[in-house]
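Sample 3 of the quickstart, ligand pyridoxal-5'-phosphate:
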Amino acid sequence: MERVYNFSAGPANLPLEVIEKAQNELSDFNDSGMSVMELSHRSKIYEDIHNETKEKLLKLMSLGDDYELLFLQGGAYTQFVTIPMNYLDDKSSAAYINTGSWTAKAIEEAKFFGNVEVIASSEKDHFTYIPEIPEINKDYKYLYICTNNTIYGTRYAKDKLPNSPVPLLADMSSNILSENYDMTKFDLIFAGAQKNLGISGVTIVAIKKDFLTKSAENLPTMFDYKIHAEKNSLYNTPPTFAIYITGLMAKWLINQGGVEEIEKMNIEKAGKLYDFIDNSKIFKNNIKKEDRSLMNVIFFTGSKDLDAAFLKGAEKEGLFNLKGHRSVGGMRASIYNAMPMDGVESLIDYMKKFEMENKQEA
Ligand SMILES: *Cc1c(COP(=O)(O)O)cnc(C)c1O
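Result:
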């Protein structure tokens, strides 16, 4: 079987180079006579992978040594809990901006620990845009956003990031290192690796050291950011293989020219697809133009039967996992950093063909 174009929202496609590199050194990593999967996390050879991955990620984010980078487990979901556990209590409040499912879940989790105020939301319009951000009260412990909504296909463009008088926190699971955000605006960001940074099993957390010192005392060990930072994310066994793959992805990204270059490619890839959709007679996208995601492009025909026929035909063309999230329906093409332009062009070619064949029914 040839490799297909995989438009899955996550776990998502990896560059073939990264997979082949891992394959080549799978049974014998760096003349150790062992695979990475078998290396002790206390060995020098593993610690080099760990520390180099950390350095590369910080460099890619243009963050200096005033930030700490952690490799944690439990997925992005666990950060919905760890954040309020570390920074919120029943006497304090945090502000959240609701842009759909992922922030809604984070809001529900935060309510276990303190007061949550949803200061802006696009819920009444089915999350089709990023809401305007009102003036932010300085008493909040932090302001929380999700920079890219994977399900609704919206994202904060660079110039829309809030200027927050309180620490700004973000879930970047589905667009980390995809465009050149000023990362120093954030006191804490996190991302599950399986969308834009590698494979499932590791969650990257970058946290400003200043903000780290303000976290709560006496927390259960595995939820205590300070302990993970002190122990260099080696308090217990880290997800070594997932971290190794993240390291290969970071190297790949640096070879592409870093975030600045990948941003140009992402704008071009998403631009081509949105242009086609906007000029199409049967496909539509209802997201406000300036808020459209560069990573998750949603589209629909308006007819369940046509959507189903489209998805069925796509697989015959080697285009997989284009079904929209169950809460939105229609189609979704996830085109993360690793999706080549060829994949996007193949999708557009198929959409053109499908449109020609189905014009009358739309
Ligand atoms: C996928 C996703 C999550 C959940 O990640 P897990 O690693 O499965 O916990 C959270 N936030 C966003 C924006 C996502 O896209």
